[in-house]
Specification:
The protein is α/β, with parallel strands linked by helices and 378 residues long. It folds into three domains: 141 residues, Rossmann fold (3-Layer(aba) Sandwich); 68 residues, Udp-n-acetylmuramoylalanyl-d-glutamate--2,6- Diaminopimelate Ligase, Chain: A, domain 1 (3-Layer(aba) Sandwich), CATH 3.40.1390; 123 residues, CobE/GbiG C-terminal domain (Nucleotidyltransferase, domain 5), CATH 3.30.420. The chain contains 14 helices and 21 strands. It has a seven-stranded mixed sheet, sandwiched between helices. It has a five-stranded mixed sheet with strand order 10-15-14-11-13, with helices on one face. Helix 10 crosses helix 11. The two termini are 30 Å apart.
């Protein structure tokens, strides 16, 4: 099973790793109801998970046909639920109403959904909250294209046409590990100070102004799957490591978790870089393995013996395992196949055995993309 077959559960599309959003839209007026229906239809056609809400007294058959729902809660209650469940929230109405509705639920840029306000006349689409990390700037631009509104973006890097590290991280599906360091990097770029850029992965596109490849500057960016800490370095961690697992029937979650912890520490790999757990389809109902994947917050991917046998590479084979499962190696082959962008992952760690568990690590050789370029970069 390759990336395109699994990753939608994580809301990422293989093409340029485009982040998909779960959206909720609400309108307060009769004029805004038609706008709500238009946005709902357009976002759904783009593949986004989207719901649209209007007051019951404005509901018409055409709006029901478009998929609009009657809002049954108060605006305060609706906003609270939207903040908990959605990646993006669009208010159609006055900005002041949206501000007052959202204010009690604002936590931080790392947690808040993208919030956009569009006036009922579709004159302006305002990025109100979580412009970069939450994606509100892009959401406002998209909503503006759909409705004919003018996008209103006020974040400093956008106003000045400069690179924004938090937006770069979001668009590439990278975990931004330190908001304070991200602010320091943005400040350096705005002030014209160079920022070093390092990556464990190949990049596509031209390096933006302000970034210097492989330069050890005071504040710098490191795109890495490794578990490392250093002064001044902002780590951006991609979901790029697969844990391939073979195990005896009935192996517990705690045993698997301890083996994985030891292997990740041995290889100096960040736990946050783990993208999936992979095994043979005979283990589809293995409770301990499934519980471990849930604990890690990643999908469990399973392959048939035939699929595993087709994996290319040099693997440590076992006749006993082959008699039992139909293939001579489960963990390495599964790690080499799961979520692979090009059909084959690089093995970071070959088979480790012990306690009835075999484990291996595969690296998904992702490409990190800068906007506006298709040529090979750094």
């Amino acid at each position: 099973m390759l990336l395109s077959a699994i990753w939608p559960a994580a809301k990422v599309c293989k093409t340029a790793w485009r982040i998909r959003m779960k959206l909720e839209i609400i309108s307060f007026t009769e004029q805004g109801a038609g706008l709500c229906a238009k946005l709902l239809t357009a976002f759904r056609s783009r593949g986004e998970e989207c719901r649209g809400f209007i007051l019951g007294r404005y509901m018409k058959q055409e709006y029901e046909d478009a998929g609009l729902e009657k809002v049954s809660a108060t605006l305060t209650e609706w906003t609270k639920e939207a903040f908990l469940s959605a990646d993006g929230v669009i208010f159609i109405g006055a900005a002041g109403i949206a501000v007052r509705a959202a204010a009690p639920y604002i936590k931080s840029k790392a947690e808040d959904p993208a919030v956009v306000v569009i006036d009922a006349g579709a004159s302006f689409a305002i990025s109100l909250l979580s412009g970069h990390l939450g994606g509100a700037n892009d959401l406002a631009r998209t909503a503006a294209k759909i409705t004919g509104a003018v996008p209103v973006i006020t974040t400093a890097t956008d106003v000045n046409g400069r690179f924004a590290v938090d937006e770069f991280a979001r668009k590439n599906g990278l975990l931004l590990t330190d908001l304070y360091k991200a602010k320091r990097i943005s400040a350096d770029i705005l002030d014209g100070r160079p920022v070093g850029f390092f990556s464990d992965f190949q990049t596509v596109g031209q390096l933006p102004d302000g970034l210097e490849a492989d330069q050890w500057t005071e504040n710098r960016i490191l795109v890495t799957y490794k578990d490392q800490k250093e002064e001044g370095g902002l780590l951006l961690v991609p979901k790029s490591v697969v844990i391939g697992i073979g195990c005896r029937r009935g192996t517990g979650e705690a045993e698997i978790a301890e083996r994985a912890k030891c292997l990740l520490e041995e290889m100096n790999i960040s736990k946050s870089a783990v993208a999936a757990v992979a095994s043979i389809d005979l283990k589809r109902d293995e409770a301990g393995l499934l519980a471990f994947a849930e604990q890690m917050g990643v999908p469990a991917v399973f392959f048939t013996a035939e699929e595993l046998s087709a994996a290319q590479g040099s693997f440590e084979e076992s006749e006993f395992v082959k008699k039992t499962t139909g293939v001579g190696n489960v963990c390495e082959r599964a790690a080499a196949l799961a979520l692979a962008e090009d059909g084959q992952n690089e093995l970071l760690a070959g088979k480790r055995s012990g306690g009835g568990i075999t484990m291996a690590l595969g690296l998904i050789r992702r490409k990190i993309r800068f906007e506006g370029g298709t040529s090979e970069g750094v």
